[in-house]
Amino acid sequence: MAKEIKINDKVFKQKVANKHHQDRVVRERQQRRWLLIGVVVVAVLVVGLVAAGLLQEYVFKPMKAVAIVDNEKITVSDFEARARFQRHAIITSALQYAQIYQQFGMDPNAILEDADANLAAETLGNDTLDAMINEIVIEKEAIARGITVSDEEVEIALQEGFGFYANGTPVPTATATVFPTLTVGAQQLTIVAYTATPTTAPTATATAIPETPVPTATATATAVPPTATPEPTATPEPTAGPSATPLPTATAYTLDVFEDNYTNYIDGIKAFDFPEKDLRDMYRAKLYRDKMFELLTADVQPIQDQVWARHILVASQEEAQAVYDLLLAGGDWSELAMTYSSDTSNNTNGGDLGWFTRGAMVKPFEEAAFSQEVGTISQPVESEFGWHLIQVVGHEERPLTAAELTNYREVVFGQWLEEVKTGLKIEKFPDVWMPAVPTTPTWTDYQ
To answer: What is the DSSP string of 71-124?
Structure first.
């Protein structure tokens, strides 16, 4: 049905909708409205999901804890930055050593393989996280003892780390190195076949040397004719010719040079998202460690209780017991060590470990070695490396060399640190830090 409408002498027909038509129009309008609402809702959900993902990736995830040390949190963000720096340090160090190896005609593959092993996600992650935990523990203990590290000390340490010494390059103080005298008694000679080697230079034998008479000067008057004064000679004109090339003068390492080097270095580490603040925090942590190290090891004496031992290492208790029975039956220790010991570093010399202090060996081995009598062979002793048969060759207090004293101080400090950590609540979250271990920078970034 249509209705006619006249406008400006023109006639238009307007359809008049019936009830059925009107209902259909209303339904279509409602459908379009619901469709529009649905599109808007979906768009909002998509935007929300994207925003949530971005928040999770860039806000919440970096704030998550990879470890908690006595209520202090190590975040994913801090862990990732340090692990990236560790990758950078491992790769650059390996490349430097590899270049030196090549210059001397040596194969650098072993260096590069070791670096690859240290870059493995689990190894890198564990080492990085343990280092960060230790730094927190040491700093807490230092502050509790009244030890502080100022910003000025950090700045000086940074300068010295880059080879700049504001007050001149320090001259190392010469210290006498103590060389322990190897004492081998009759009992030890019966345990191992040993040829004593002199530890001091042979003393020259005093031999009578006839004296050579020294002529005595006799004052004798001698007439000396006057010497004619030579006529001055003309100075020849210089001849043009090649002049010596002056050697290059070393550039003085000034504060400006240090600042340029430091700026370039900071620009380099920023390329893999390691901020300058974190570098300074690492230097601060090292200063705390150095101060605590000096405090805790100041009383370590250069003479320590030591044991000289040898061992045979096997995989199982049954195998260890079988070798032990062979030894008791009169078997030759050196031959059995060469045949059965899996410690390839010393099985060809009877498993000889030389002299060592407490802390140098794993705990079960140390306890057995320091508690048994000289000459005795232990029952099988289990450690993380396998099963050991231990024979003590010597046990006495001995002086340490300078290097041995330094190593022993590190052992003492390490034992203190582990004891402190056992009294703290330390939690590590592998499900968080393992996926966060970075894979950059890579070897190709340095080509």
So the answer is: TEEEEHHHHHHHHHHHHHHHHHHHHHHHHHHHHTT---HHHHHHHHHHHSHHHH
Give the integer Cα–Cα distance in Å for 132 and 137.
9
Contact 395/306 with Cβ under 8 angstroms?
yes
| Contacts with 442 (C-beta within 8 Å, 6 or more apart), sequence order | 91
What is d(CA 341, CA 439) in angstroms, rounded to the nearest whole number?
39
Q: pTM of the predicted model, to two decimals?
A: 0.69
Q: Which two tokens stand for residue 24?
A: 């259909």
What tokens were used for 366? 């140390």
**Which residue spans within 79-235 are E strands per DSSP?**
none
What residue type is assigned to position 58 of the chain? Y
Quote the tokens at residue 49.
């999901």
Instruction: Write the single-letter amino acid at 130.
Output: D
In tens digits, the chain (447 residues) has pLDDT values of: 555 555 556 655 555 556 666 667 677 778 888 888 888 788 777 776 765 565 455 544 457 999 999 999 999 999 999 999 999 999 999 999 999 999 999 999 999 999 999 999 999 999 999 999 999 999 999 999 999 999 999 999 999 999 999 888 777 665 545 555 555 565 666 677 643 333 333 333 333 333 333 333 333 333 334 444 444 444 444 444 444 455 555 568 899 999 999 999 999 998 889 999 999 999 999 999 999 999 999 999 999 999 999 999 999 999 999 999 999 999 999 999 999 999 999 999 999 999 999 999 999 999 999 999 999 999 999 999 999 999 999 999 999 999 999 999 999 999 999 999 999 999 999 999 999 999 999 999 998
Q: Under a CB-based contact definition with an 8 Å cutoff, are residues 433 and 76 in contact?
A: yes
CB 118 within 8 A of CB 90: yes
Q: How far apart are CA 12 and CA 10, in angstroms?
A: 7
Q: For residue 136, which of 326, 32, 16, 284 has the smallest C-alpha distance? A: 284
How far is residue 10's CA from residue 1's CA, in Å, rounded to a whole number?
Answer: 19
* CA-based nearest residue to 115, from 100, 98, 84, 94: 94
How far apart are alpha carbons 261 and 274 in whole angstroms?
17
DSSP 153: H
16: tokens are 């008049």
Coil, strand or helix at 390: strand
User: Rounded to the nearest 10 degrees, what angle do helices 76-103 and 276-297 cross at?
Assistant: 80
As beta bridge partners, residue 73 has 68
Helix axes 109-119, 76-103, angle to 10 degrees: 170
